[in-house]
Amino acid sequence: MVDRSLISREFPRKFSDPVRTLDGSRRAIVNLQRLETLWVNTGTLCNLTCENCYIESSPRNDRLSYISRAEVAGYLEELRMLGQPTHTIGFTGGEPFMNPDFLGMLEDTVTAGFSALILTNAMKPMRKCREPLLALQRRCPGALQVRVSMDHFRRELHEEERGRRSWQPMLDGLRWLSEHGFSLSVAGRTRWDEPEADLRAGYAELFESEGIRVNAADPAALVLFPEMDEAAEVPEITEACWDILKVDPNAMMCATSRMVVKRRGATAPSVVACTLLPYDRRFELGERLEDAAGSVPLNHPHCARFCVLGGGSCSG
Questions:
Q1: Considering just the CA atoms, what is the radius of gyration of the chain in Å?
Q2: Using one digit for the tens of pLDDT, what is the confidence trace for 130-175?
Q3: What's the per-residue H, E or C state across the chain?
Q4: 217-276 pLDDT tens trace
């Protein structure tokens, strides 16, 4: 886990001023171009406690509470009223299938004409929902996309991150999703510093041997996430970096997405800039989507390491 006491020592001033970097340069910002994906954090409770979970999900962490079906429905209605070109509602956690309202949220999402992207570990909470999930998939074919977390294609490395006895239940859930024709992708990690080609080859061999219909060569089907470490040294991103790095600011997550969270003890959900920054209040943009249409200054290590330098995107 991240030693958060290091963060204040390593970054006492970096990533603090939303306008200027430590050397006085103008900080890079990203403007919302269009809201293509709205993420919903269903709550931080999870059946696992992973070694390097950026959101620190666990069976005890309810720092983000369960959001309700009615609250999510309110945002779906606001999307309709605003006329945003939103096509995907992404659900993340924690483990979404632990939220007792989750199946209702899915039904409301797909019947409203959106595609639902579910991030899950495919373990027991999902297995308990197999019948209603399959029924919804049959009613709205193609509307449910499921992304399963498989940190590595080798069992011992996956369990190094997710804990003992986490491999086989995940693999069984992934195989069930594949056998029943769900639109399926897998999320892996690059924390072991292996060449991407080797990772994709290893996943491809596993998928073939297990009869899992995921194309490991497709970056949208096998998403390999860069690591996030708030305590690691990382440069700040200035306006000049876009040209220097040949990176398009409109390719950043916060140019096309926002996330809704429900903080523990809050009376209402709020909208934050992206999936990576649910706790940092500097990235809270208001309670409604119409309040969240402004620009986002890249004043957090995750902005630099994951998005700009790592090329990561939770939307795949």
A1: 19
A2: 999 999 999 999 999 999 999 999 999 999 999 999 999 999 999 9
A3: CCCCHHHHHHCCCCCCCCCECCCCCEECEEECCCCCEEEEECCCECCCCCCCCCCCCECCCCCECCCCHHHHHHHHHHHHHHCCCCCEEEEECCCHHHCCCHHHHHHHHHHCCCEEEEEECCCHHHHCCHHHHHHHHHHCCCCEEEEEECCCCCHHHHHHHHCCCCHHHHHHHHHHHHHCCCEEEEEEECCCCCCHHHHHHHHHHHHHHHCCCCCCCCCCCEEEECCCCCCCCCCCCECCHHHHHCCCHHHCHHHCEEEEECECCCCCCEEECCCCCCCCHHHEEECCHHHHCCEEECCCHHHHHHHHHCCCCCCC
A4: 999 999 998 877 767 788 999 999 999 999 999 999 999 999 999 999 999 999 999 999
At 53, list the tokens: 């979970």
Tokens 């860069």 belong to which residue? Answer: 226
